[in-house]
TrEMBL record:
<protein>
    <submittedName>
        <fullName>Amino acid transporter</fullName>
    </submittedName>
</protein>
<feature type="transmembrane region" description="Helical">
    <location>
        <begin position="6"/>
        <end position="26"/>
    </location>
</feature>
<dbReference type="GO" id="GO:0015171">
    <property type="term" value="F:amino acid transmembrane transporter activity"/>
</dbReference>
<keyword id="KW-0812">Transmembrane</keyword>
<feature type="transmembrane region" description="Helical">
    <location>
        <begin position="177"/>
        <end position="199"/>
    </location>
</feature>
<feature type="transmembrane region" description="Helical">
    <location>
        <begin position="67"/>
        <end position="86"/>
    </location>
</feature>
<dbReference type="InterPro" id="IPR001123">
    <property type="entry name" value="LeuE-type"/>
</dbReference>
<dbReference type="GO" id="GO:0005886">
    <property type="term" value="C:plasma membrane"/>
</dbReference>
<keyword id="KW-1133">Transmembrane helix</keyword>
<keyword id="KW-1003">Cell membrane</keyword>
<feature type="transmembrane region" description="Helical">
    <location>
        <begin position="107"/>
        <end position="125"/>
    </location>
</feature>
<feature type="transmembrane region" description="Helical">
    <location>
        <begin position="38"/>
        <end position="61"/>
    </location>
</feature>
<feature type="transmembrane region" description="Helical">
    <location>
        <begin position="145"/>
        <end position="165"/>
    </location>
</feature>
<keyword id="KW-0472">Membrane</keyword>
<dbReference type="Pfam" id="PF01810">
    <property type="entry name" value="LysE"/>
</dbReference>
Length: 200
């Protein structure tokens, strides 16, 4: 069970840490110190809902179709390899400094709307949570629940750290080189997970 929980936490964390519009939005709100708690709650709750659906749904499908788990396992390997390659490509292109735009307060309603759009209108979130996390969780049966809870906890801890720790990170991520290092680190984690999944 402990192994499943650790794997769930690390898999979820590596997927969430990939640079994207949602993370940039959370980081920007943290830098502006506006509605950070609401933004963190929306992102974490959305991930928890999607992760639970992936873990529960994948298990039901795998029970009905014995070949499905193996097929999804190799789909997951391919997904991680491609996703990691995209992160390396982003690192090679160079980073972009994140500078929060505007100084006027943004209404809560607008922030909530934008956060929901960044979360639910992103097609990658469904691949990450429903497909990939769901397929990996099947490798740790019968401890899928522990895997899923840990994956959701990773989401909560990451978004909380990103939102509330943004002020500390502001001087660092004002430099494009910081984003390059992070992109390369995420790409390395993705490829390492692909190797573990393929050999597991």
């Amino acid at each position: 069970m402990l192994e499943a929980a650790i794997a769930g936490y690390l898999v979820s964390l590596s997927l969430i840490a990939a640079i994207g519009a949602q993370n940039a939005f959370v980081l920007r709100q943290g830098l502006r110190r506006e509605h950070v708690g609401v933004v963190v709650a929306i992102c974490a709750a959305s991930d928890a809902l999607l992760i639970s659906g992936g873990v529960a749904g994948f298990g039901a499908i795998a029970a009905a179709l014995p070949w499905f788990a193996a097929a999804m396992r190799w789909l997951g390997v391919g997904f991680l390899l491609v996703y990691g390659a995209l992160r390396f490509r982003a690192a090679l292109k160079g980073g972009e400094a994140l500078v929060p735009k505007g100084s006027e307060p943004v209404p809560l309603r607008r922030v909530v709307t934008m956060c929901l759009m960044f979360t639910w209108a992103n097609p990658h979130v469904y691949l990450d949570t429903l497909v990939f996390i769901g397929s990996v969780s099947a490798q740790y049966a019968p401890h899928g629940l522990a895997f899923g809870i840990a994956a959701a906890a990773a989401s909560l801890s990451f978004f909380a750290a990103l939102g509330y720790g943004a002020r500390l990170l502001a001087p660092v991520f004002a430099r494009p080189a910081a984003w390059v290092v992070l992109e390369a680190a995420v790409g390395s984690i993705m490829w390492a997970l692909a190797a573990v999944l393929a050999l597991g």
